């Protein structure tokens, strides 16, 4: 992995974002009244972003907010990697992207025009704004990448899948370079209410709304939705070495497994099998994993089941294995979550620091691992695991290793 | 404001150009109108003038002058036959 890009609620570059994660600086705040009028108790990880400073109005007609984030993150990752592709190389440069809800805000806007205005009118660009593959397509167009172009939509694991599949594409010779990642911009009136209807959302902390997402804490109240994007440039280690690229880490393992049980409730067994599949793929010993970036959404069932799954996968070693959820400070980016947390995991190796689980004061008695509460730790990490578990029982796990 | 001036301003916004650089006879392609951009432009015009531009008519339009004339004809026919 030779390039990183991030636009997140608590940082608008990979470096700024990771510094905020390590310092437990939260990007979560009360939901803008522009989305749902106050007073309410909603909080979200919102990105302060002025699209009109980056695109002309006519360009914005066909670039949804989620795609705007995707283009920004992909641009940063590509610049960071200094790829400088030749004409010939663009044919084997791929985009593997992940989205959960695609152009959610554009689709909702179309409903407004259809049902809430006197003339039932829907804009001609609604289809290309709203489709799930819009971000992947726009990244390809903006950067002239003409190899395989695919989008993965596996809910909360979408961009973990896109990264894992990208690594496989390189390993199997379908692409030489892949820009992989995911994006999401789901903070809309209807969507926030839909999540709230599942009784899954955290209430605003009455003292400090930025502390509303508290994974593994007995006083947690649920997950916090976030928006943004993260992108990674992947290439074969031979190619990266030959061109003298800066190499953050090596992606060595990817595993998928499905729960085949419940559409929304996560299951221990599927998670264990995904982690084991990633370990098997990586050909490294489980003891080599020095940190697990948990899916850790801060729902009761999610936290408890992931804890059980880590114990089942790692056995006795689970007791001393640092596991943290950084969603406490950036929220749950759904389609962007896997990529954002892959960036966290890679930077953890690269910078030798384990990011904390922010705001964790009193662990849930059913969550009894080392969650790295509140404070980051210096550590020389040989390999790390990043978990992403999606609705529909779609589990993807990535393993990255220090490059040598 | 006459129809041509009004749609020239809308075209400038739609195609990301300065209105002073747009003349009535320049072909839409030269304004940077791709197919979707053109559809968005027609959509805006229908909203602004409260008319319907048929696909047959739209396909014949080459430039802003022709389009302004079409809109004026539509406006005349709708005012001659008032809506319910």
Q: What does this entry look like structurally?
A:
Chain A folds into 2 domains: 3-242, Peroxisomal Thiolase, Chain A, domain 1; 250-401, 3-Layer(aba) Sandwich (Peroxisomal Thiolase, Chain A, domain 1), CATH 3.40.47. Chain A is built from 13 helices and 14 strands. Chain A has helices spanning 14-22, 57-60, 65-81, 104-115, 126-130, 134-143, 158-171, 189-197, 237-242, 268-282, 300-314, 327-330, 337-351; strands at 3-7, 28-30, 43-45, 93-99, 149-152, 177-184, 228-235, 250-258, 289-293, 323-324, 353-354, 377-378, 383-390, 394-401. The longest helix of chain A has 17 residues, at 65-81. The model of chain A has no long low-confidence stretch (mean pLDDT 96). Chain B has 4 helices and no strands. In chain B, helix 1 (3-14) packs across helix 2 and helix 1 (3-14) packs across helix 4. In chain B, 17% of the residues are buried. The model of chain B has no long low-confidence stretch (mean pLDDT 90). The chains are: A alpha/beta (404), B mainly alpha (84). Chains A and B meet through helix 2 of A and helix 2 of B.
Low-confidence stretches of chain A: none
Question: Which pair of protein chains has the largest interface, and what are the residue counts?
Answer: A-B, 12 and 12 residues
Q: Specify Rg of chain A, calculated over alpha carbons.
A: 20 Å
Strand content of chain A: 15-25%
Structural class of the secondary structure composition of chain A? Answer: alpha/beta
Whole-number radius of gyration of chain B? 12 Å
CATH superfamily of the largest domain in chain A: Thiolase/Chalcone synthase
State the order of secondary-structure elements of chain A, H for helix, E for strand.
EHEEHHEHHHEHEHEHEHEHEHHEEEE
Q: Judging by the overall fold, what is the CATH architecture of the largest domain in chain A?
A: 3-Layer(aba) Sandwich
CATH names the topology of the largest domain in chain A as Peroxisomal Thiolase, Chain A, domain 1
Tell me roughly what share of residues is in helical segments of chain B: 55-70%
Q: Per DSSP, what share of the residues of chain B sits in E-state strands of 2 or more residues?
A: under 5%
């Amino acid at each position: 992995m030779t390039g990183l890009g991030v636009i997140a609620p608590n940082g608008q570059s990979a470096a700024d974002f990771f510094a905020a994660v390590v310092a437990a600086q939260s990007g979560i705040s009360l939901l803008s009244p522009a989305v749902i009028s106050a007073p309410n108790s909603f909080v979200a990880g919102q990105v302060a972003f002025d699209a009109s400073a980056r695109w002309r109005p006519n360009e914005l007609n066909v670039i949804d907010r989620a795609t705007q984030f995707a283009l920004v993150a992909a641009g940063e990752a590509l610049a960071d990697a200094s790829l400088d592709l030749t004409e010939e190389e663009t044919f084997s440069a791929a985009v593997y992207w992940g989205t959960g809800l695609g152009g959610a805000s554009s689709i909702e806007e179309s409903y407004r025009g259809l049902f809430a205005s006197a003339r039932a009118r829907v804009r001609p660009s609604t289809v290309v704004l709203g489709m799930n593959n819009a971000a992947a397509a726009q990244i390809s167009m903006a950067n002239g990448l003409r190899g395989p172009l695919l989008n993965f939509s596996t809910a909360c694991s979408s961009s973990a899948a896109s990264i894992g599949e990208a690594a496989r594409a390189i390993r199997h010779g379908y692409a030489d370079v892949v820009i992989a990642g995911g994006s999401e911009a789901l903070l809309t009136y209807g969507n926030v209410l839909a999540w709230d209807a599942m009784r899954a959302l955290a209430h605003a902390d009455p003292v400090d709304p930025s502390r509303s997402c508290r994974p593994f804490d007995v006083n947690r109240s649920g997950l916090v939705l976030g928006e943004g994007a993260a992108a990674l440039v992947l290439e074969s280690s031979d190619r990266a070495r030959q061109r003298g690229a800066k190499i953050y880490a090596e992606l060595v393992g990817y595993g998928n497994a499905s729960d085949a049980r419940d559409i929304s409730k996560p299951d221990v067994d599927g998670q264990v099998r995904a982690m084991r599949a990633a370990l098997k793929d990586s050909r490294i010993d489980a003891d080599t994993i020095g940190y697990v970036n948990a899916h850790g959404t801060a729902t009761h069932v999610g936290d408890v089941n992931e804890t059980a799954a880590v114990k089942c996968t790692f056995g006795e070693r689970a007791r001393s294995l640092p596991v943290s959820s950084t969603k406490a400070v950036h929220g749950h980016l759904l389609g962007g979550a896997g990529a954002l947390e892959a960036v966290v995991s890679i930077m953890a190796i690269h910078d030798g620091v384990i990011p904390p689980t922010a705001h964790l004061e009193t662990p849930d008695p059913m969550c009894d691992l080392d969650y790295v509460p509140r404070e980051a730790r210096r550590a020389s990490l040989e390999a790390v695991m990043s978990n992403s578990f999606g609705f529909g029982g779609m589990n993807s796990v990535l393993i990255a290793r220090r490059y040598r | 404001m006459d129809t041509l001036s009004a749609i020239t301003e809308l075209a400038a916004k739609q195609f990301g150009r300065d209105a002073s650089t747009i003349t009535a006879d320049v072909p839409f392609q030269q304004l940077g109108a791709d197919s979707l951009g053109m559809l968005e432009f027609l959509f805006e015009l229908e909203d602004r003038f409260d008319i319907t531009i048929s696909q047959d008519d739209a396909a014949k339009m080459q430039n802003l002058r022709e389009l302004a004339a079409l809109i004026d004809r539509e406006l005349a026919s709708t005012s001659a036959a008032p809506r319910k």
